[in-house]
């Protein structure tokens, strides 16, 4: 059975697109045929992060409108042949998506793909609603600050009452917390919420903590999902997340503050 | 007395572990959650002949409503009065009148056992009461009333919520509201009756919203944005004294909200 994963948050700029690209690549690298869809109509940037912006011919809206077939619009990833990208339209607005149309395309994708990752736009309006409506699993991307946590909580409420699963009284969407742009040093200074703070407020299963990392910017500049940068901390964090999602046991990392040079040399704290 | 009760079968969710992702074989069954109302037959007397007679009269008034209706019978009051009931005979009467007993409430351990033998599970709507070990046993036996009290309809609802109430969500209960999870900041829960929250209460909680000044709020961790009983409210600023993780009850006394540790 195919599984639809929505990557969502409520708030913008928290790392949804970064995460969508990384986990789609992670799942595909594990041999699962995966499609990743950009729901951010009018503000497309998943294709940039995936480095396929120059190969876009047709987009999600074209497929919904029947102007192109799914196979014409899906772009095969240059690094992994199990991964396909369905880009958003840059020239339409969000009203171009309809629930019926999105449902139809997802049903078609489900026949062929194991995982379908939906990169949600920010907000709780139509685009975000459509991205989460058909989901089986939700990856809630949250930054360790009060407003981001509050928006995630709001989104969780929407998932549990407005999704297809909720409306049809099916088993609820499985919700996972991904705490992103985490900086233990700043937590220590009291500038950010800690993992425990966030978990206490959201009471949600923690799938992983992604550290604040320069490697993310480097990756997006070169159009390669950060999970392929295996030496980087953020890349490893996403690899852990995929492993846990697939049922493997991985201890949490990147939660404690980095030891300075002094600490490294003397192994003191 | 007949009252109606709402059942909310607990959602049996997949546990939140990561491991289930491995097995995607298509399921042949699933558990869903649903709420439904069932009439409850509350007995005030163990005179089976009177029960049969009055039940028949009640059914006669609304035969369509009662035909093959599921029914829960409640023995709490009888047991409080130390009046024993023959479960077999009672169930026979109920079934003879084309009602389908689906539960016993307020029965003693022995009565529950008897009911179970007849395929009727016990519901813990009340605290189970065991006449054999009850302190009331020592009390003088209450004299049997000459005429059994007229059965009457009372609607007692309680709404049970087992999942977190998130920011932006609003829950209204026409009776009591029981929440077994947290209530997030930015969420709002309202009840015409009492409110119980067995988790952190961080949102707004309004009890007695139709003016019931006797309504109370009970919670295990008070961090609310606002609490109100029958329109008398306190906002979070006024609640600064409340210690975290300390169970409290909130009630109204002379138009003032009193917050008291439990
Ligand atoms: N772990 C991280 N460390 C540092 N920067 C990050 C991290 N995750 C995301 N970013 C940066 O944050 C910005 C927003 O990320 P993006 O994934 O586009 O968020 P969203 O899709 O939620 O709007 C981008 O500039 C991205 O490079
Ligand atoms: Mg984005």
From TrEMBL, chain A:
Q: Name one Pfam family in it.
A: CbiA
| Biological function | ATPase required for the correct placement of the division site. Cell division inhibitors MinC and MinD act in concert to form an inhibitor capable of blocking formation of the polar Z ring septums. Rapidly oscillates between the poles of the cell to destabilize FtsZ filaments that have formed before they mature into polar Z rings.
Task: Name the chain's protein.
Answer: Septum site-determining protein MinD
Regions crossing the membrane: none
Report keywords, A-Z: ATP-binding, Cell cycle, Cell division, Nucleotide-binding, Septation
Give the family from UniProt: Belongs to the ParA family. MinD subfamily.
Subunit note: Interacts with MinC and FtsZ.
Q: Where would I find the CobQ/CobB/MinD/ParA nucleotide binding domain in this sequence? A: 5-226
Question: What is the native source organism of this protein?
Answer: Candidatus Methylobacter oryzae
Which InterPro entries does the record match to this protein? CobQ/CobB/MinD/ParA_Nub-bd_dom, MinD, MinD_FleN, P-loop_NTPase, ParA/MinD_ATPase
